[in-house]
Each structure stands twice: as structure tokens, then as C-alpha cells.
Amino acid sequence: MNGSAPYPFYLITVGMLLFLLSYSIIKQPRTYGRQYLAIILTLSGLMIIASAMELLAASETTMLWLRNFQQIPIYLTPIFFYGLAREFLEKPSNVTIKRMTWMMIPNLVFIVLVYTDVFHHFMRASITFDSYFNLTEMTSTPTLTSILFSAYTQIIYLTAIFLLIINLNNVYKEKRTQHWLFLIAFIIPVISYLLIPFSPFQLPAKVALSLSFTGLLLYFICKRYDLVSAWPIAKERIFETMNDGVLIFDRYKRLNEINHAATVILTKMYPGYTTSSFNNIYLKDIFKDQTDILKLVSNHQESKFSIEYPDKDLWIDGQVLPLRAEKFTDEATLIILSDVSKAKKAEQKLIERATIDQLTKTYNRYFFMENYYKWVKHQPQQQVLLIMDLDFFKQINDNYGHQAGDKALQIFGTLLKSYFEQNSIIGRFGGEEFAIYTNSELDVILDQVKKFQETLKHTPILTDNNQRFLLKISVGLSIAKGNGTTFEKLYKEADEALYDAKHSGRNRLVIYQDNFKILENVHQQKRSAP
After folding, report:
1. Rounded Cα gap, residues 266 and 275, in angstroms
2. Are the CB atoms for 386 and 445 separated by under 8 Å?
3. Domain ranges, residue 66
4. CA-CA distance, 48 to 54, in Å (whole number)?
5. Taking the model in full, what pTM does it have?
6. Count of domains in the chain?
7. Where are the beta strands (DSSP E) in 121-235?
8. What is the pLDDT of residues 147-191, one digit of tens each?
């Protein structure tokens, strides 16, 4: 039915060439981008060869079968174009695959309807056969159903083109040429399909011809610029699964790459941020409240830093690594962020256990003494040490139980901190004995002690059995002037004063000062010789 002509053989040659190109691309390393491109080239090759064979077919039945076969690449290729566009833009591959799978369902339905059209005629209203230069091509009149399916496929194809167009603003100057070529390759089938009907030469197999141009250009781009290298899948498997946050900034300090871990860390640091906040953003906009990091980056030196947000229970360790080219110019900056909050919290717990009395939440004896020697070096003025002891505490344990005694110590520790924590170190020295080291004026301290004693009078301890009892304290006070007094001497004097308070009726304060002991309680004062 058809005469021979160079045109079908051109198409067959291009189709075979696309098969060879597809094979060269699909070799290792295999990535999603390579696979999508190989599938596009293969489908394009099948489409082109099937179109050429239709032109050379000897019977209408064979032409109809070949035309039906062409619908498979025609309706599947745009979906893989969409996948390739997303890979080129380095979108998440797993999301791309899910979207492509859902997109493919209507097109598979279309293909089934095309192959069964002889039974229901849902897809073709009529079929005619047209001749071009002794070549015969089948032409069909589409039904409304066929037009809707074709429109759906074109929407997918235009979506891929739209993705590339909207990304133009985010493309660096160095990559704009390849981006434009990639976009042109996508647009060629649309332009050629629209322009060929207006050509003075009426050619058959217009879709096949336009796909041949696209396939050849895509292969050139991907070989020339290595656009489907192993990096996207390596980034997904390594870069995206790293526990440390990684941010890569270009020479203009604009964010070029960020992995999932970095996004999580930054959204913890800045709760108002979302994943979309990091699109096309600059270093100074991300770390606007961290001037130290900005200085480290501007120094162009490898350096480390730490960020603390105690109110958020967040601690970040970071590292700045300039990435240099051979001429030692800063091409990029790598910032690594590590969330060390768990380790810091564990460290704080260990420190707390080593320094804090767990029952009263005051310092233990060892840490109290350590802080005394640190503080006294920087506090040359008068220093005061108070030793407090709960009166008749053994009777509390015996009469109400040790649980009641522990509860009393807890409440006492809380009250103690509320009265004396400012300008003071508070610690539990053991049992029911507590110490306070302060630089407040003596009159202020005495007033605080009296108010504290009054508070204890009106703060009954309630046991589990609904029994009540009150706490009373004896206090020994010693005074050190300057930083020449050792803690041992100061403690010995305060302890002697406490001893006198215990043996003078309890529930009172005794001051050891200049070899005299001054006895005080809420109502009276008197001086006595040692």
C-alpha cells in the first residue's frame, strides 16, 4: 500500500539511535534521573519506530495495530518527563515516584480503552487513511472521551514545563545555560506539533518527528552537563539520612543545600520557621541572632561554635568549614549542626547529682565548700556563714515516720531558698543541718532569719495521716572580714554558735563575733562571754 521513501528510514535510524543512547545512560551508576531519561528515550524510540513502520505497513489492520501501539509511549512519556523534571530540580525521589504512580492510572485506563475500541468505539469516532509523498498514514477523529484523556496527558506535560519555568529564578548563573537547554528540550514537542501543520511541507508522523528532536537534545544535555549523575540518589541515601544537620551556602552566602536533620534543628531554634522558610534564603537571614556564627563564616577559617537555648532545652554544637577551589577562593561554606541536647541533659543530671542534694534541691556539702572558695576570692567585703539545724528532728521521725521527716526537709529547703537565695549559697550539710553563706549586711540577715522563723510558725507540715507539726530552728552565725578567713575557721565558729543556741533553749540565733557570742531570738537580745 505504501511506497518506499527516505523519511521512514530516517525515523527508524533515529529510533535505533535512541535505543543505543538509552542503554549507554542506564549503565552504572543507576539513579532515578538516569532511569527516567532512559525510559523516555526508549519510549520515544518505540514511538518513532512504530510510526515509521505504520508508514511502511502493507495493510490497514497492521497500521491500526501499530497506531494503537504508539499510544503506549505517547501517554506514558509525559509522566516520565514529569519525573525527570523533578529529579533535575532535586525534589524528593520517593514523593516523585508516588505522584507518578497515581498519574499513570488514568493513562493506563486510556491505553486499555484504545486497544478495545473496536468493541465500544469510545475513543475514535472515525478512521481515515491519508497519503503524503506516497506514504500512507492513518488518521482518526477523536471522541470527547479521547480528547479528555489527551488533555489530561498534556496537563502533566505542561506541569513538567511549568516546574522548570518557576525554578528559573532559583538557578545560579553558572547553571542557567543547561537549565534553558533542558527547558527547550521539553518545549520542542509542543512547539513542533503546533508549527508543523503550518509548514509548506505536509509530513506524516509529526509526533514521532518532534520526539526525535527532543530525545537527541536531551541526550546531548545530560552527557554534556552530567545532569543525571549519582549525586541525587547519593544525597537521598547519605545526605538526607545523616543525623547531623548540613547546610551548604554558595559564595554569595545563599543556601544551596539543606538536609532534613538541619531543617529539624533550625525549626527548633526558630519555632516560626517551616520547611519552606529555607527556600532561596541567605546565611544572615537564618542566623540573624547568632552574630558569632556570621563572624566565623566571614573569617574563612575552620571553626567550631556552640549555641545554647536553656529555656528550650536545646543545645547545638556546630562547625564552619569553608569549601575552597584550587585558587583558594571561597566557593562555598559548609555548616554542620549537631543537636547535643540529650547529652547535655544527661551531663546536667550527672552534675546535679554530684552537686545538688536530691531531697532538698540545695547544694551538697562538697559543692557548697567549693563555691565558698570561688566566691570569697571575688567578695572582699564582710562575709557571713549561718548554720541552721532543725530542732527535735529525731522526734519528728520517731513520732510521724521518716516519710514525714523527708517531706519536712523538702518544704524546709524550698522555704530556705525563697528567703535566702539572693546573694547567697545554700547547702545541706547532712541530716537536718543546713548552711547559708552570704554577703548581705548583718542587719538584713538578722531580719531575714526572724521573718523566716515567723514563717515556720505558720507553716505546719501535714503528714499522710493528716497529722500536723511545726518546724523550729536553731541558728549559729559567724562573720569573716576580707578573704583571709578559711572555711574551716568560719564553720567552726558558726558551729560553736549553733551549739550555744541548742543549749540555750533552741529556736534562736547565736552570733559568734570577735570572740563573743550574741544570743538572739525573736523577742530579746543579750551578750554573754564565751
Report:
1. 9
2. yes
3. 6-232
4. 10
5. 0.46
6. 3
7. 124-132, 135-142
8. 898 889 889 888 888 887 877 766 656 567 777 887 787 788 777
